[in-house]
Amino acid sequence: MTIAAWILAALMIVAVIAVIIVLALLTRYFQQRRQRAAAHNDALLTPEVPRDDFRGPRPWIIMNPSKHEDVQAFKAHVESAAAAAGVMHLQWMETTPEDPGTGQAIEAVVSGASVVIAAGGDGTVRAVAAGMAHTGVRMGIIPVGTGNLLARNLGLPIDDLESAVKVALGADHRLVDLGWLSVQDIEEPSELPAEGALALKAWKSHPDAAPTPLPSDDEYAYVVISGMGFDGETMVSTDSELKKKIGWAAYVIAGVSALTVDKLQASLTTIDTNGESTQVDMEAKSIMFANCGELPYLVLAPEATVDDGMMDVIAVDTHAGLVGWADLGLKIVNQGLGLPSLNLPSTGEIAFTQARDAALTVDKASAVQVDGDAIGTARSIRTRMDVGALDISVTEI
Fold this sequence. Notes:
Residues 54-185 form the DAGKc domain. The chain crosses the membrane at residues 6-26. The model is unreliable at 1-11, 36-50, 52-56, 248-259 and 319-328 (pLDDT under 50). It contains eleven helices and 16 strands. It has a domain at 200-387: Tumour Suppressor Smad4. It has helices spanning 3-43, 71-84, 102-110, 122-132, 149-153, 161-168, 195-204, 230-237, 240-246, 249-257, 321-336; strands at 59-63, 91-94, 115-120, 138-143, 173-188, 219-222, 225-229, 264-271, 277-284, 286-290, 294-295, 298-299, 311-318, 348-355, 357-370, 373-393.
C-alpha cells in the first residue's frame, strides 16, 4: 500500500472509533439524564431542615465568589430557594486564595452551624470537606463548578439550584470517605495551600472543639480522585478561563496536549484493611486513586463507592500511539456501560486494585492532582482513606 492509502485507512479506522465513542457517550448521557430527573423529582419535596435542640437550624454557606459574575444575584437566588424550604436566614462566608474553604468550614462548625454548605466547584467542595472531617456536622453541596464530580457521584441535582438547595438542607444524609494525599521528593511546589495545614491552623484556635483524628500539615484533601502522570499533566495544562467558557471540554483540549507525556516507571505499594502490603513495579501513563469513579459522560472506576473505606487504584497505559488511546477510551466507555473489555496487545490497558492506603514512587518528577487541582510535581506521593469522615446531605435514600 502507498503512504496515502495507509493514511486513508488510518483515518477510516479513527472515524469508526469516533462514531462508536459518540454513540456510547450519548447512551451514557441519556442514562445519567434519567437518573438526574429522578433525583430532581425527589428534591422537589419540601425537606426537613437539619436541626439541633440547642443550635436550631443554622445553615452556613461557604461560597467561591470567583464562580459568579453577580455574587449578590446568586445569594438572592439561594436565599429564595432556602425560604421556600422554610429556612429564612443563611450565614454566608466567602473563600479566598489563601484559604479555599477549610478554615471557613471550621469557623462555621465552632460557631454552631447545623449544616455547612459548599457552594462552588470541586476545589471548594474538597477544601470545605477537609474542615468538616470528623466534626459530626452535616455538609451540603450546591454544585456550581465545571466538573461537580462528588455531586454527580452522589446523585445530587446538577444545574438546578433550587433542587440543590433543598437537598443540601434536607434530612437525608450518608457517611462518605475522604482521601488525604501528601507529596514527597518535590520538584515544583504547589501554589495551593495544603488543607491539612489550614485545618491544623484553624483548630489550633479551638483545641477543645477539635475532632480526631486530624490530618498532617502536608496533606491535601480529595473526595473523588487523585493521581500522578497523564491526569496530573492534563490539569496543569487546563486553561481556567477557557474552562469558564466551554466547561468540561477544556479538560479534553488539555488532555490532547498531554497525550505524549512520558510513561511513569513506578513502584506502587498498597496496604489493605488487614495492614498487609503489596509492592509492584509497573509502567503506566497515569496512576490514580479513586474514592468514587463517575466523571461526566463516563465511569472511570465502576466498582468505586464513596463509603466502602477503600480507594480504587487505577493504572492506565497505552501502546501504538493514537490507536492505543482510542482503544483505552473505548474500554473506559464500555465499563461505564457495563460491557466487558479485553486488554489486547499493542492497545490501551487499564488495571484496578483496592487499598486502604497507598504509596507511589516514580523515576522522575511528574504532575500530581487532587480532584482536578494541580499541586506541583514530585517523585513520590502517599495517600490514605479517612473512613466515614464526612456526613453529607443527599437525595432521598
